[in-house]
Structures are given as structure tokens and as C-alpha cells.
Amino acid sequence: MANDKILISIGRQFGSGGREVAKALSDALGVPVYDNELISKAAEESGFSKDLFLRSDEKRSLFSISNFFATGRYTFSDNYIGDNELFKMQSQVIRDLAEKGSAIFIGRCSDYILRDMDCLDIFITAPREVRVRRVAERAGLSPEQALALLEKTDRTRETYYNYFTLGNWGVASNYDLCIDSSILGIEKTAGMIISFLREKEGRA
Question: Residue 58: is its pLDDT beyond 80?
């Protein structure tokens, strides 16, 4: 597989271990994974502050740009930058990276953005109790606090995805493979995805 381009997009429920699965895939395949790196690259490409993209990361919002540095590459007559402009900038970064070589993308509607490319679309899920426990341990929260954060984050991701794709976040028909990471664990889930990729591409 080393000589062929590998493109994988990973959607995930909050607390499902999607980022950890992506990292395991990256280590096993030798393919770079892009998550927060996309924000830095989008900011660099657009000339706007990274903070602007961080505040809108997988969220819908409208910002005044008067306090953000801009190179002049993008201009907005009303001095506001909204969802569509930020999404276009970040989408172009994702497409540029995908055209250059193998990549694993986490979230940010990457499955939709790369829908005309040969990209394996994955969705990672896990039972609520497993996700609550993982979020609570990771963030040092009570189970109640973790559940509230989990539900809020998933709603935000769903709203963002549905708005830009006109699709339905987390619905199985949108993806090539949906996996409950709690069944096999992170490493074996990544291994299963690799096996699926090999079969899909006839590389077994």
C-alpha cells in the first residue's frame, strides 16, 4: 500500500476514541493525520489569525474580523466573516492536502469535501456509557458533567455537518464503514479498518 495514495476520513461521536483510532491508523500506515493541523494550515493560507478558526472549529458562527489580522487575500465589505467563508477556506486546505498525497482527516466534513475522490469514509461510535467514562477520565469531570459536554459537542458537530453537507451526520448510509470502537478497542479497530481498506482496494 506504500506506493498508492490512501485517503481516509473519520467522523466520530465525541468520546468514541475517533482521534485515537486515527492516530493508530497513522502509525500503522505511515500516513499523516490532520485534525487541529488543518486549522493552522487554513489560517496560514487565508492570512487570518488561527484564533478565528479555533473559535469556529466544527461550529456555526459569525465573527467580526476587525480584531483579526488579515493579509487582504480575503475581503468582506461588511467586516464580518461567516460560516461559509471559513468553510470554503478549510475545505480548500483539505482538498489541497488530499491532492498532494496520502492523508487521514478527522471530522470537518472531510467525507463530503472529498466525495469526488477515492476516500474511505469511516464513522467511529461507542455506547454512551463508554463515551461518558472516557470523557470524564480525560477531562477530569464528573459523569454528569461529561454527559452534558458529550451531548453538547455531538449536537454541535451534527448541526455543523448537516448544514454544510445537507446530509445527516452519523447516518450509516453516508459512510463506507461504521464501527463501535468499544468492541475491539482502539488498536484492533484500526486493524479492522486497514483490513477493510485492503479488501476494498483489492490489496489483500
Answer: no
R_g (Cα) of the chain, nearest Å: 18
Q: Identify the CATH number of the domain in which residue 98 sits.
A: 3.40.50.300
Q: Which domain holds residue 136?
A: 7-200
- Tell me whether residue 194 is in a domain: yes
Q: Is residue 34 part of a domain?
A: yes
34-55 b/e (C-beta count within 10 Å ≥ 16 → b): bbeebbebbbebbebeeebbee
Q: What percent of the chain has pLDDT over 90?
A: 66
In a domain, 1, yes or no: no
Residues in CB range of 175: below 8 A, 6 or more apart = 11, 111, 121, 122, 123
Residues 12-31 pLDDT 10s:
999 999 999 999 999 999 99
Note whether residue 2 is domain-resident: no
Query: Could you give the number of structural domains in the chain?
Result: 1
pLDDT per residue over 131-151, tens digit each?
Answer: 999 999 999 999 999 999 999
Strands, DSSP E only, in the chain?
Answer: 7-12, 33-34, 62-64, 80-82, 103-106, 120-125, 177-180
